[in-house]
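ESCALATION

Customer reports they have been waiting on this structure for their group meeting. Please prioritize. Original submission:
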Amino acid sequence: MLHPATELRKINDQVGYGIFATQSIPQGTITWALDPLDQIFDLTKTEQLDHQCRELLTKYTWVNTHGQRILCWDFGRFMNHNCEANSYGLGNCQFEIAIRHIAAGEELTSDYATINLEEPLVCQCGSSRCRGIITLEHLEDIAPNCDALIRSAFTRIHEVQQPLWHWIES
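Update from on-call: job pushed to the front of the queue and completed.
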């Protein structure tokens, strides 16, 4: 479930769509939470799909720590990668949190190196800190900074409005 102050917008033909803040989202705000309508595909269920469906599933899902593919029922599946992401997942990715203030009109992004990326991704983020090709191996390099950003944001979790709090299990 995406934060309610977001909307889907087309970026361009090359990137496609992205999720944008419709109002200011403070650091420490939960930006996305796993909810009961999200579909969870285990390996058996994935292998039963035809080739075209598996390709779509690979494009629009992320892999959790149990090796399951998560397909967001809402526009969460359109959250793009950025090497300087403004939202990171916690633990086994039951939710994501804004690691810094996200301005109205700004795209919400995640770092795909943190979501069990299976194949290298040619990055198109345009960040001055762009890593070029994103792989799971980058996680080791970025983990200390990610942890520090998440810790800083998490200290504010009870100070800001949390419209998605209902979806957090624990």
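Sent to customer with the following note: The CA atoms of residues 52 and 94 lie 28 Å apart.
Escalation resolved.
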